Amino acid sequence: MVDMDNHIARIESIDESSPRAAIAEVMTAVASLNTGSVGQSEFALRGLPDRLQEWLDKLMDKLQKIAAASAEITSLTVSVGTPFNVSVAVTFAKPS
Description:
Blueprint: H1 4-12, H2 19-37, H3 42-45, H4 49-68, E1 73-81, E2 85-92
Antiparallel strand pairs: 1-2
């Protein structure tokens, strides 16, 4: 079963003060959620949509804080597919 409490806590614990490090942690957290949900039966995933929405809300909040702290981020995209397939794409400005 997908442990949404652990996934939510992981997103909440990301320190956004270093944007590049924070984005790396976000990517790891997203990969962990995707990997944890692979092979789960429909029965195991029932009841999780509300928890997934909570996780996505926390992810979006964290990404907004990271982007606000960085002049280097030029674009940020989050895609959600079914079942439980989340991807995040971030573009950083080229160093001067």
